[in-house]
């Protein structure tokens, strides 16, 4: 059906051009109301013209990076218009023809394009009245050669020594218009029929659906795919290449394929096994079978590994795109962190089949309706697929604490950001508020309403809006309906409106901290809530917060059902009298921080030192992260914070250390300009980590859990960086075996710190050895490890080679170039001057080779944490203003770096003496006094600047 319709469209196009009505206008034209379907601002379209069916035919010339396009858009006009507007960002529109539902030609006065708003205006001679129409557009398109430009873009890979090319798509959120004129907003949904014509030397193309018809046209092949279900344009996908597919499903009714370039076919199996499991788990949970969502056609389930991909992955219906490192798994080369990421990202993209594809957010301001649910299920359905990886527990560090970190900023946007209007604000909304915050809110609500009620609410939302669009109120009402059927909820929480609870988290920017004051004599607990910000005065904001808590007299961290909902600024709870610590937010199940009165903190610290295991490990993760943020915000004394953290000398748990290490390093970086304080703080960190090093050991054990392995990875990586003698000695032993024994492989989970130590303690030959391994590797995730650790070299000539390779070595993928720049800064303190010289001399080429002005800005922004010397800041500022014109839109990023660096210095100066006093408190008073005198003198010198 597809090719015949396209041929008919071509004929109608030619016929329409030859027989168009003359350009004379009726006399009343100038008095007609000028009506259109474009909104204000012109980025948006009104819904008075809606697509009902789309045919897209692309004639692809891969080697020439171009294609010829023909679109046939079936639309329903719902009110009189004199203009129909579509989105476009193609090379040129060659011709347009319009016919009505009876096949009669509709006179097109003219058409024009607007490159700023990326629209196509089709202007008619007469008023177009309500009804069905077919718009046929003949146009020319480009295959973008920079993957960061998205749309229909080109990538490459090597098979042996032969360079091969492919073309694929990334349309979210507004890049479908680069491949074909369309209604490029999520609300406009309809079926699509895709037809791709390609060179015959390539393998069959891929799209959302299976191939329906193949036509051989001399040395060209046209493949027309089955119609998609009702779908938004951003979810359309196609792929032209010589890639190969491996089908791991035994039944034709449930196909599942992993697709990649030829080389790493042996890395397909793991993703297929977990992917099939995840698909089945979600089909059952939602009570909607994935394979039955094709509206009459069997849904495909293809997952494609791409050497070049600007995003992590993309949930195109039937054809999910991934970076290679996020899909391909090799038993000997993929470490546990990357293994976890493979499982979780497959789960994320599969969850989108229901949340995003089947039911789509109306507009990008409601992006959380897509992304929050995908981010939630990326952990909890992944956990069901591979429980041993402990992915559900990782949610706390990976999402809850990341969301709280982002929400501590004064300028963070809410989940439902109504100001999303144009391309820049659309892009900005693809951030932590829509992903990690939204998913953390969902986890809190699941514990609040219970598993079954939560599941029922999601089923109601999906089934009530099947193949349509969703609004926040639809979600709130689905929860209201599910809760109304749950008598236990009504009993436990009378007069609580679950929709209002949900909405308070969606609409309020930021996240709360609850302040808890415990009267040990009476047992009365006073609670107040406020927005937590690191700086500035927060607005007075009220959340409806489901609260869980326990106490030292009868600790119970397993009860995650909230005991009450805090709906006002403050409340009180009466517990039995007794001298017991109190802890809120069991297992960190809620999206809020908790700050206690000083005595309660003192008791928590004492409990942790006596027996830390009385307190759940996820609450230990909460405590260590919270107190360090309270230090940064000035909400807790440094003395008390270090008292709480003192127990960590006996802590080896991954979750307790994970975010704490990030914050402790944040403090350490801000003391670099004060050598005495910086050295003392580094010694303090090593002493704190020694217990974990002793407990974990240097070798992986057969009974290690996934979190044991991850804990060893993060502890050893940091310990070696700080100069821990045992860590360095063991790493060098492994590194030297790797260098000299061809049959020896460094254990995959130790490579990050072993490789880094080998290069940090080595020379140019060590760098060349690992760089050659990188260039010859077929394992994408291991290549990322090597790229990271190559930057650990202290040999500055090698580091310069590394940086210049980011410009000229096509084995370093465009999506890895900015990462490599950051890795060079992270590698050693000594690297900063070399990186700055590289930036100063090559910023124009960095912009070009890294993928554009935005990538240059990203590279510049990476400097903020590492500019810790005042002279370096002054020199950077001089360069920035000297090159202001050439830097263009990247200039503000540099100004931000200067401001951030100066704030870092000021913060370090403000706390240095107190931190120094606390970490030296066990020393003799004379020694301490002498050391503090030296530190104060150093501070005085810094302040004089």
UniProtKB/TrEMBL annotation:
Q: Which first-to-last residue range defines the signal peptide?
A: 1-20
CDD domains referenced in this protein's UniProt entry, alphabetically:
M1_APN-Q_like
Q: What are this entry's molecular-function GO terms?
A: metalloaminopeptidase activity; peptide binding; zinc ion binding
Annotated Gene Ontology cellular components are: cytoplasm; extracellular space; plasma membrane; side of membrane
Asked if Cell division is a keyword of the record, the answer is no
The family classification in the record reads: Belongs to the peptidase M1 family.
Name of the protein this chain belongs to: Aminopeptidase
- The organism named in the record is Danaus chrysippus (African queen)
Organism lineage string: Eukaryota, Metazoa, Ecdysozoa, Arthropoda, Hexapoda
